[in-house]
Design goal:
The complex is a heterodimer of chains A (about 120) and B (about 170). Chain A has about 120 residues and is an alpha+beta fold. Helix content of chain A is about 45%, strand content about 15%. The two termini of chain A are about 15 Å apart. The relative contact order of chain A is 0.17. Chain B has one domain. In chain B, β1 and β2 form a beta hairpin. In chain B, α1 runs antiparallel to α4 and α5 runs antiparallel to α6. Chain B contains eight helices and two strands, in the order ββαααααααα. Classes of the chains: A alpha+beta (about 120), B mainly alpha (about 170).
């Protein structure tokens, strides 16, 4: 059944960019990282503490530690992409709210409510 | 009607499916209350246990994360702000969700808070979908779907003349 959507270009941009970046960084890049041989999103390294070698994980490999596994994509690179996606969602929500105040009425219905044009 | 037909277009594709009205409403309510208590408990225990300090967490635990520059700056210049706002904010966000009042506003700030927890903890040893991310998604779901309209105060508040005359408030309620 052909349907209509009352979404604006900005709505669609928020959907594509916000969700797209988060899906890119988490499942897509996560699958690539896993297939490339790292089961963790973090760096795994060995460090000697009090004469004993322990294995730890972190966002980076500290100086003096020996990397055991390194993800194909740095965790903070993926994190930054997620953060940009979330920021797009957040700014979009604020924009919709500010526009609604400025116009005296929502220029579109809030999410989760039926469209007023249908 | 017990079943609702959804016909819409998302990301360029036509989508048609049916939803059980009672189960959809029930699950929105259940999700909202569970998420609300999770956050309200976190705030309430901080308030009951006495002075809360986020200084150590902000200065050391979040170092090297993508929010590290922001949290480190706050730790050095305005640590009083999270010390005050985190316990009260968590409590108010949780309370808002439980009673379904200003649900979208509470959900927005719940998700905003979870952004800092998600990146600040960076507990990604088992992948980047952590408990913090799931919490953030819960808040976003409650807010996007306006779960406060199901057995919540927002369903009554939205029927008042004040809200009808100020429709922008629907972006905070719902």
């Amino acid at each position: 059944m052909a349907t209509q959507s009352n979404l604006t270009t900005l709505d669609k941009a928020a959907m594509w960019l916000g969700g797209g970046l988060i899906i890119l960084a988490i499942p897509v890049m996560g699958l690539i990282v896993t297939l490339a041989g790292s089961n963790s999103a973090l760096y795994t390294y060995e460090v000697t503490q009090n004469g004993e070698t322990v294995t730890q994980q972190g966002l980076s490999v500290p100086s003096g530690a020996t990397a055991v596994t390194e993800p194909l994509f740095a965790p903070n690179l993926r994190g930054t992409i997620v953060l940009i996606g979330l920021a797009i969602f957040g700014l979009y929500a604020i924009y919709k709210f500010v526009v609604a105040i400025g116009s005296g009425a929502p220029e579109a219905t809030p999410t989760g409510e039926p469209s007023r044009t249908q | 009607m017990a079943t609702r037909q959804i016909d819409t277009n998302v990301l360029g594709s036509d989508v048609s499916f049916t939803l059980s009205g009672p189960w959809s409403a029930y699950w929105l309510f259940f999700l909202r209350v569970m998420t609300g208590w999770w956050m309200m408990h976190a705030g309430l225990t901080k308030l009951l246990e006495g002075p809360f300090s986020a200084a150590g967490y902000l200065e050391f635990a979040t170092a090297g994360t993508v929010v590290g520059p922001v949290t480190t700056w706050i730790a050095g210049n305005a640590v009083w702000l999270p010390n005050m706002l985190i316990p009260i904010g968590e409590f108010m966000i949780g309370l808002g969700l439980i009673v379904g009042c200003l649900t979208r506003l509470a959900s927005f700030f719940g998700a905003f808070l979870m952004v800092f927890f998600y990146f600040g903890n960076s507990g990604w040893a088992h992948g980047m979908v952590s408990g913090d991310m799931m919490g953030m998604l819960l808040f976003m779901t409650v807010g996007v779907l306006g779960a406060g309209r199901v057995l919540g105060l927002d369903q009554y508040i939205e029927k008042t003349n004040f809200v009808k005359n100020n429709r922008w408030l629907r972006y905070l309620l719902g």
